[in-house]
UniProtKB/TrEMBL annotation:
It holds the Pfam family Abhydrolase_2. The lineage of its organism: Bacteria, Pseudomonadati, Bacteroidota, Flavobacteriia, Flavobacteriales. Keywords: Hydrolase. PANTHER family: LYSOPHOSPHOLIPASE-LIKE PROTEIN 1 (PTHR10655:SF17), LYSOPHOSPHOLIPASE-RELATED (PTHR10655). InterPro entries: AB_hydrolase_fold, LYPA1-2/EST-like, PLipase/COase/thioEstase. Residues 21-215 form the Phospholipase/carboxylesterase/thioesterase domain. This is Alpha/beta fold hydrolase. GO terms for molecular function: hydrolase activity. Belongs to the AB hydrolase superfamily. AB hydrolase 2 family. It comes from the Bacteria.
Amino acid sequence: MSPIPLSLEYLVRPSTIESGKKPAIFMFHGYGSNEEDLFSFASELPEELLVISARAPYNLDPFGYAWYAINFDATHGKWNDAEQASESREKIVGFIDEAINAYDLDPENITLLGFSQGSILSYAVALSYPEKVKNVIALSGYIDENILKEGYMNNDFSDLHIYASHGQVDQVIPLEWAQRTPDFLKNLGVDHIYKEFPIGHGVSQQNFYSFHKWLVEHL
């Protein structure tokens, strides 16, 4: 299936549903990766899902892509470009709307799956626009309040479901950052589950089976 040209580059796996609106899962890769990374999960995901794996908009030298810059300097240490991240949040929202129209998707059954930086953006999209997202699978990421839309805490989260997981020996994003997630979501009244696995910054087979089971139950 050749992708229909949209505002972001992406890979697509068709749904087995031939008539009517289709549920979909949108994948967002991590810093320095590309759309092929998470797309490796596609063949294992429920066949009724249309699978879209997006490429982040910013080129990294010499290869790979990013949703926003991560800067390193003596003054600030490692810090994120929150303005660029917020712009990517809006790009993703627009891209999802485009895909819904292009592929006749069910706007009430949209899942976001993100890894690392893609997970951070998935949280940002879902918490800023919960009416657009049913499920989030957030792998090895955390919630960055600096890139949530102003007034997000007043949103209706009653139809949003989040699966979050993190590696217990993650050396890229500290475990304690992810461990703040359950309380943050609980305070917003978001239905969620949080799991940890004995791995670093990645997705183990056990982690995959865990979120796959959760996804099947929430479609």
